[in-house]
Amino acid sequence: MKSKTKEILEAVSKGEMSVDDALLQIKTEPFVDIDYAKVDTHRKHRQGMPEVIYGAGKTPEQIVGIVKAMQDSGEEQILITRLSAERAEILKQSIDIKYFEEARIGFLGEAPKADGIGKIVVATGGTSDIPVAEEAAVTAECFGNEVVRLYDVGVAGIHRLMSHKEEIMSASVIIAIAGMEGALASVIGGLADAPVIAVPTSVGYGASFEGLSALLSMLNSCASGVSVVNIDNGFGAGYLASMINHMEVKA
Fold it and tell me: What DSSP designation does 182 have?
């Protein structure tokens, strides 16, 4: 994914932006201090994607303050994760926010056009894993990716997964989300030629230890090309998948 700085330099090269305007954008303060938060306004320059607001533990007033600081710095798309429905309703009184309840994500602005190199497949072992999957899928969509959802295709009925071989084989990145023993990631990793991001969930009976069993199973996967994020971290998986799906050749 192109960094904002690279986009600015390319615009100058093409004569679409003056050197002075480019310098003004690049030399703006790298963060804005609003007392309770230091908003990283240069994140998009460095990484190609702006800072994401973690909503849990923040008051609606704090979230609004961070959003306004980001908007003042020119951000047009802002993602808020782990946002409860109650806080989202309060935020709607102050800011124009779209809320994805199952994903617990709030989003401001228009989602960018899907411009990744391919499709991101998000697959779950069971229906109970869908909230984590939606966090991953919505995150990826908000960062400009086409997402294919394959829900409830776990190994307890592996024929369900095998009926989607075409989607799996054609994906550029796959996010495999499962609780219990977390076997889905290994199975998909053994089928696909794309990177697999495994997400253990806290779904399961007592000995699943709130996702620890799935985490350890995924870390010990015998399938090559499988990486693992933290328990229930759908956002982290969606973000990483978007980065992979926007990779460019660096000369």
Answer: -
DSSP annotation of 126 reads S
Digit-coded pLDDT (tens) for 204-218: 999 999 999 999 999
From the list 78, 74, 50, 76, the residue with the least C-alpha distance to 64 is 78
Report the 10 Å Cβ neighbour count for 6.
Answer: 13
Residue type at position 66: I
Q: Name 53's bridge partners.
A: 80
Whether 50 and 78 have beta carbons less than 8 Å apart is answered as yes
Report d(CA 140, CA 144) in Å as an integer.
7
Q: Residue 157 in contact with residue 185, Cβ under 8 Å?
A: no
Starting at the edge strand found earlier in the chain, the sheet holding 146-150 runs: 146-150, 119-124, 173-178, 196-200, 226-228
The pair phi, psi for residue 240, each rounded to 5°, is -65, -40
Q: What angle do CA 215, 220, 223 make, to 5 degrees?
A: 115
Structure confidence by residue, pLDDT tens digits, 89-131: 999 999 999 999 999 999 998 888 898 999 999 999 999 999 9
Hunting for tokens 């939606």 — which residue is that?
134
Which three-class secondary structure state does DSSP give residue 83?
coil
CA 13, distance to chain mean position in Å, is 32
Kindly give the pairing relationship between strand 78-81 and strand 53-54.
Answer: parallel
What is Dmax (Cα atoms) for the chain? 63
- Computed over every residue of the chain, the mean pLDDT equals 89
**CA–CA distance, 227 with 204 (Å, rounded to integer):** 21
Q: What is the pLDDT of residues 13-51, one digit of tens each?
A: 888 878 777 766 666 667 676 677 777 776 776 767 778
